[in-house]
Amino acid sequence: xxxxxxxxxxxxxxxxxxxxxxxxxxxxxxxxxxxxxxxxxxxxxxxxxxxxxxxxxxxxxxxxxxxxxxxxxxxxxxxxxxxxxxxxxxxxxxxxxxxxxxxxxxxxxxxxxxxxxxxxxxxxxxxxxxxxxxxxxxxxxxxxxxxxxxxxxxxxxxxxxxxxxxxxxxxxxxxxxxxxxxxxxxxxxxxxxxxxxxxxxxxxxxxxxxxxxxxxxxxxxxxxxxxxxxxxxxxxxxxxxxxxxxxxxxxxxxxxxxxxxxxxxxxxxxxxxxxxxxxxxxxxxxxxxxxxxxxxxxxxxxxxxxxxxxxxxxxxxxxxxxxxxxxxxxxxxxxxxxxxxxxxxxxxxxxxxxxxxxxxxxxxxxxxxxxxxxxxxxxxxxxxxxxxxxxxxxxxxxxxxxxxxxxxxxxxxxxxxxxxxxxxxxxxxxxxxxxxxxxxxxxxxxx
Amino acid sequence: xxxxxxxxxxxxxxxxxxxxxxxxxxxxxxxxxxxxxxxxxxxxxxxxxxxxxxxxxxxxxxxxxxxxxxxxxxxxxxxxxxxxxxxxxxxxxxxxxxxxxxxxxxxxxxxxxxxxxxxxxxxxxxxxxxxxxxxxxxxxxxxxxxxxxxxxxxxxxxxxxxxxxxxxxxxxxxxxxxxxxxxxxxxxxxxxxxxxxxxxxxxxxxxxxxxxxxxxxxxxxxxxxxxxxxxxxxxxxxxxxxxxxxxxxxxxxxxxxxxxxxxxxxxxxxxxxxxxxxxxxxxxxxxxxxxxxxxxxxxxxxxxxxxxxxxxxxxxxxxxxxxxxxxxxxxxxxxxxxxxxxxxxxxxxxxxxxxxxxxxxxxxxxxxxxxxxxxxxxxxxxxxxxxxxxxxxxxxxxxxxxxxxxxxxxxxxxxxxxxxxxxxxxxxxxxxxxxxxxxxxxxxxxxxxxxxxxxxxxxxxxxxxxxxxxxxxxxxxxxxxxxxxxxxxxxxxxxxxxxxxxxxxxxxxxxxxxxxxxxxxxxx
Amino acid sequence: xxxxxxxxxxxxxxxxxxxxxxxxxxxxxxxxxxxxxxxxxxxxxxxxxxxxxxxxxxxxxxxxxxxxxxxxxxxxxxxxxxxxxxxxxxxxxxxxxxxxxxxxxxxxxxxxxxxxxxxxxxxxxxxxxxxxxxxxxxxxxxxxxxxxxxxxxxxxxxxxxxxxxxxxxxxxxxxxxxxxxxxxxxxxxxxxxxxxxxxxxxxxxxxxxxxxxxxxxxxxxxxxxxxxxxxxxxxxxxxxxxxxxxxxxxxxxxxxxxxxxxxxxxxxxxxxxxxxxxxxxxxxxxxxxxxxxxxxxxxxxxxxxxxxxxxxxxxxxxxxxxxxxxxxxxxxxxxxxxxxxxxxxxxxxxxxxxxxxxxxxxxxxxxxxxxxxxxxxxxxxxxxxxxxxxxxxxxxxxxxxxxxxxxxx
Lengths: 447, 524, 409
Known about the structure:
The complex is a heterotrimer of chains A (447), B (524) and C (409).
Chain A: E1 3-6, H1 10-21, E2 26-30, E3 48-49, E4 52-53, H2 57-67, H3 72-91, E5 104-107, E6 113-116, E7 133-139, H4 147-155, E8 163-169, H5 182-189, H6 192-206, E9 211-215, H7 225-233, E10 237-240, H8 247-262, E11 266-269, E12 272-279, E13 282-289, E14 294-298, E15 301-304, E16 314-316, E17 322-324, E18 331-333, E19 338-340, E20 390-391, E21 411-413, H9 423-426, H10 429-444
Parallel strand pairs in A: 1-2, 1-15, 2-11, 7-8, 7-9, 9-10, 15-21
Antiparallel strand pairs in A: 3-4, 5-6, 12-13, 13-14, 16-17, 18-19, 18-20
Helix pairs in contact in A: 1-8, 1-10, 2-3, 3-10, 6-7
Chain B: E1 2-5, E2 8-11, H1 15-26, E3 31-34, E4 50-51, H2 62-78, E5 83-84, E6 88-91, H3 101-112, E7 116-119, H4 121-127, E8 138-141, E9 144-146, H5 148-161, E10 165-167, E11 170-178, E12 181-189, E13 195-199, E14 202-205, H6 211-217, E15 225-236, E16 242-245, E17 254-258, E18 261-265, E19 269-270, H7 281-294, E20 303-314, E21 331-335, H8 336-339, E22 345-350, H9 356-371, H10 397-405, E23 411-413, E24 418-419, H11 420-429, H12 435-442, H13 454-465, H14 470-486, H15 495-510
Parallel strand pairs in B: 1-13, 2-3, 2-14, 3-10, 6-16, 14-22
Antiparallel strand pairs in B: 4-9, 5-9, 6-8, 7-8, 11-12, 12-13, 15-18, 15-19, 15-20, 16-17, 17-18, 21-22, 23-24
Chain C: H1 7-17, H2 25-29, H3 42-53, H4 70-74, H5 81-93, H6 99-103, H7 107-114, H8 118-126, H9 128-138, H10 154-160, E1 171-176, H11 178-183, H12 186-198, E2 201-204, H13 213-217, H14 221-236, E3 244-246, H15 249-261, H16 268-276, E4 277-279, H17 280-289, E5 302-307, H18 310-313, H19 320-325, E6 331-335, H20 354-371, E7 375-378, H21 381-391, E8 394-396, H22 399-405
Parallel strand pairs in C: 1-2, 1-3, 3-4, 5-6, 5-7, 7-8
């Protein structure tokens, strides 16, 4: 008997690796590759508290936890998050630089400054642009990066560089390819010859710039490719994460998957967990829908890290009911502190002024205020309360029902399944994923 | 201040207005079209995409049925590239309110000369496996689907060839008159704020649901236009033939496959203001129920978008009796010389997109009745630029095109297979366009991801290749996402929630667009 | 006439199109995209293009898809990407199937034709002028890995075989070897029977034909459907409550899911057979872990690369061979870490794909050469041929090591 981890995102991988390291027998079941290739390859702990940009995430999460008792951080506490983040950094030092507990801001592909805590060493120079002359350079054949846009927004950002100029290069990843993915570039830049051509092309345009920003495609398997490029250029370079699939996210995914395997985690990829059996308040096995038949996987403990709405673990049906899809766990509406098995989405949906000329919409939609806070609103720029929905857990990370009692005594929910945070908005995804994985592992290990 | 002159000013750039300016120009007049926004940005782009066979009206309104059948054929001649020949099915179900409707349908079709063939339900299910399998009687008709934006833009291109000027984002503010005659139009360029004055002898009011307000600009008694609001919901395409309930026209009686979506329509609720059309949750649910009736399983389809449009129904008891020859049922020409004593102003309303060309012909005929200077209408004969008779749109055209240029061009909007060149070419033609303006012609961001992946690319390209500053480029991105969400959130469910979450993850989490430098002025 | 674009045929795969959220994870793992820009990638030719095909595959680039199935495997949203591509390719080839695709799709025919004069046939297949001709006429690359026919097919060995005295106490199983296991990879089939009997199983081998896999992957659905139905009928002749244990890594996938998910074969018998089918390593590992087998093996000091074939990974059961072999003392199993060997059924045989297939497999070949240039393990036949061809190593089914460890060879 052993622990079964469901889900291969950061939370699932971290839980599996942590448990296997401690000598547990761990099987990780996942439908597909997890969310890391969709991430920035950074560890965000807490980037924003409301409209305020956070500089000291651990301190800020304590404040947040006090103000928002439904937030996952209120449950996890600073210590678990801090321990988990430090542990991860020690696992993959070649992929995560930075000082735990201190945020930096890194330029995004559209030129915003995004706060994060740990980041690939290849991004470090991007954290320190204030007052500098920066060149942003990328190949035209890479459709996910527009150096001019990135540079122009950076240049007008308070606290940003003194000057930023964008340059587009005509440099295919492979001969005869006009539309290459970031990964195609990263693979080509693993090759020293391609790298030399790339360096020459970049050097030709950067002029007097002190720092050079490049798309996050500077090598895939070769983790030192970016250093070679930096040396070639003779000035600091930094990578800028692109829209998914992101190469830094892939690198992190590959590294953690390899570590988990090396630690003895059995990974079963490609089948969906579609059911479970339970006895006496315990989950006894989960059912894997393999090709041809359903296979029960017996478990002493189940770490459930399937993701949230983005993965389909939480679903909304056409009537607006929200459900957790595998265990039918109670889905909590946050803010009320209560738990309900289903929740109606749009009690009072009124539409936007869709027939007005679309330009006028910039001032915001003219909607009638709803009496109760709806889960969705017509304003794209507001947080959608729907995405705060999720599973509520007790201090041992066990999903709880309306009365606050655990649904199963050996089922632990982690990661973005947890209720109470819009992770992409406050930039807390990795902190929650890691802190909850860590805490669940501690419980399983009896610590 | 711009000073222009023309014989005729057409107000309203929907399909009717564009059809009118084309007709006027082809008859030899110097014409200018004004729209306060973009072409076909209102009702003409907010329908279910149906090119009527006429079947829908054969019982209740056979004259309209005949007109639809005729115009359907004409559009196949002049604007085939905007039309997909999907075919359509009308079917009866057990428990329909009028059990004799099928017989009435056949009889009406014969009278109205609308081609209809009754077929076995089993054969119909082969044509469209998603049709409700409990159908009892099925009638095959020549319904198709049509892209309203392409109709408008290609008719506009034709009008331009005949010397017409098309001024979009130019809002008419006043129709000037002197001695009981129209003398001109004052307008404002919405993008630059510049005033535009046009001297003209005739104004044709084609403003659809806004026609009442336009007539009032000339000091006329407001024309009673009653906007009939209807919602449409697009599911990722799962049908290939138009499905109609064979009943008296009702809410939610049709699903039209159009481009990559299947669109269910629609409701009909009186609206007070065409600028503010809600999408009530109960109407969404009603449409989903209707979808289940037309194509069981509809609720499980992936819903991509919802929109609402307003039918421009004219209920004006002051329409002169002499106008009735222009009034086939459903469309009305109001002659303000007899109604308000003002010469040089005509208002048109009602009708449907399928008959837009015929409506244009009617109002221009009415204008020539007033001027006494008659020219033949040739709009039915000459194909619009870029169209060849009988060369219809097919869903796989873009796939073929990308197959050809895949190694030499980039695909910016992957869901809709829009290439970089398509985008930059149109941007060169319309450097002031918003991403939504470009979207309507290119389908940017209209597929399953609803802009999650392509919006930042489009903004980047617009900045890199276009003649706009960073404030506007960033504003365009914001505006595009704002507008996509309008049509998304009222129907958000199922797998589209996963998409919306991923889109937020990308846009907020990775790009942090919410913290880009603040916008200081409105983007239009 | 089976219509590959018919509603029934692609209902399952088509329905999954709507699951795509464009995350593009599939493309990061596609082994063909990694080596050539000629293939537009699984997302493009899969869920994206499918929205526009309308039953007509105008995008010929999809022929560069090798059908390895990696995209389906890694998709977090459950899109049947590879299945969509297979159906679309079948639609594309409806009217102009190259004769080459027909020839190499008929595994049994090749085996039967070659067997009676095996040495001669093998020589002929390896002889350069013949291969040049085959390339010119049939489009089969002159250097492509070709199967080596055994002198005696497995069914002839089985006809004379007497059960080992150890057989029986653990119960009875049906052995499924596939046609390659009958004509080409005969030793594997024999080893499997001997291993099963040593571990206490009574083995039944009903007469069995071809599953139609190669026909399916080349878009010849009509025949493939008939063949898989015939195979199901064959297997049904054995007692219907027994587990079917297989060494045919890809053919078992056809029974388990592909016939249904790709070719739309909705058939209760097929489903029943699929439900009872287990990969031999999967089967043994489960029995051992449940403590149901007396697993007495001797030490084998060997380090060996194991490559999990795409078709096996696609069955979503993890890598039971790795777990199983790690139970043998002294055995160090190094996972290849490679996505695909490149052959992907018959893909790598084709002259326009040969170089692509070789490039796809290169990381694997390098790994084999680095870890143990003499011996490597892989569960499917054509992959073994491909790895042999490009490394010169002896490449065996994982059961080969177990056979040794049990003292059977």
